[in-house]
Amino acid sequence: MALDKAKLTRDLGISLLIYSLPVVAIYLYFKLNNGIVSESHLTLPPFLEFVQPVFANLRSWGFIALTIILGIAEFTAGLYDEQWTGRERKVDIICFLAPKLILPPVIAFFSLTALPYLIPNLANTFSWVPFWGGFFLIAIADDLTQYWYHRLHHQVPFLWRFHRTHHSAPYMGMAMASRQNFIYTILFSQIYLTATLTYLGLGLPALFVLVIKSFIVLGAHSSIAWDKPFYKYKVLHPVAWVLERVISTPATHHAHHADTSGDGVGHFKGNFGNMFFLWDVFFGTALITRKFPTSYGTKSYKSEEWYAQFLWPIFKSKIEGSPLADGVLAKPISEKKEVAPIPVNTNIYEPAQS
């Protein structure tokens, strides 16, 4: 997808407006209450208090266990179509475990050392913000920032080199959800933004946002197509219409991982949303077909060694013709003859292919 500077400028302007919406809402709430704060994010609404320990455990260790369990279920059910070879397993496992070791000290240094130095005396400045305000502020700031981080890694050739590892897997599933180059992972833009907002006093809303987002993102990558019943049964079509435009679903995100964009189903050039699919709808990068691609990955992929996938450009591939080797350039996907894409507002159900 070529970088259209005029469209980019327009979309960035819209993004600034979206970023400002929760800030304006919080300001108006404060003014309408004559500056009196009746609640803060430090105290959960009563109906959410009982789930706080659950969310805390999910954030600390629960998602690791959940991902492993669901990954085993997918593999046992044969949903990887025998493509999870020894080399692919090694890439997925290392990309899953390594960030658990690399990121905590990086984020700890950023939160405990860098932020107090860069913005001293501002810790817990936003502690007066009500829980709902902090929740929507972080939900929008975190996910919209990740949308742009993801989109630019597809539209800027230099940045694509650090994201192609995620698109190398010839299958979808829990195993490949964390499959990223280490530079893409360490520079993951929104984690630093969320860490900053947490430092400023929005830690509890951040916990709830990140747990909910993790569920949605894992579900969108899963080979278990949980959204198919919404397309199959007519009574659920209105729910499907809303759901697939608000959050990422297997159908919309699998399309993003297809190995071709010329069949009317694959949409490598869009569907960048992580938690919210709304961003793709707003910025015209959405394609909703309710179909699933027949194949995934990139045509140039040659079953790379784990070190070339995870540690490029420190270590390069030794496979001849590999895009991860020196002096080799490759397009991310093959371009077949273009077929008119199905409009975003389609309501036609067609049986999904998995």
Short description:
With 354 residues, the protein is an all-alpha fold.
Report on the architecture of this protein.
- It is a single chain.
- It is globular and about 65 Å long.
- It is built from twelve helices and no strands.
- It has two domains: 1-41 and 48-223, no CATH class; 225-298 and 333-354, no CATH class.
- 36% of the residues are buried.
- Mean pLDDT is 85; it is low at 333-354.
- It has helices at residues 5-32, 52-76, 86-118, 131-155, 157-160, 182-186, 189-221, 228-232, 237-246, 250-256, 278-283, 306-311.
- The protein is mostly helical and 354 residues long.
- It is a multi-pass membrane protein.
- It holds the Pfam family FA_hydroxylase.
- The chain crosses the membrane at residues 12-30, 61-80, 101-119, 125-144, 182-200, 206-226.
- This is Sterol desaturase.
- Residues 136-285 form the Fatty acid hydroxylase domain.
Key features of this structure:
Fatty_acid_hydroxylase, 354 residues, oxidoreductase, 12 helices, 2 domains, lipid metabolism, transmembrane, mainly alpha
Topology:
Blueprint lengths: L4 H28 L19 H25 L9 H33 L12 H25 L1 H4 L21 H5 L2 H33 L6 H5 L4 H10 L3 H7 L21 H6 L22 H6 L43
Helix pairs in contact: 1-4, 2-7, 3-7, 4-7
Major sheet attributes: none
- What is the general shape? globular
* Tally of individual domains: 2
Name the average pLDDT.
Answer: 85
Structural class: mainly alpha
Span of the ends, CA to CA? 25 Å
Query: What is the β-strand count?
Result: 0
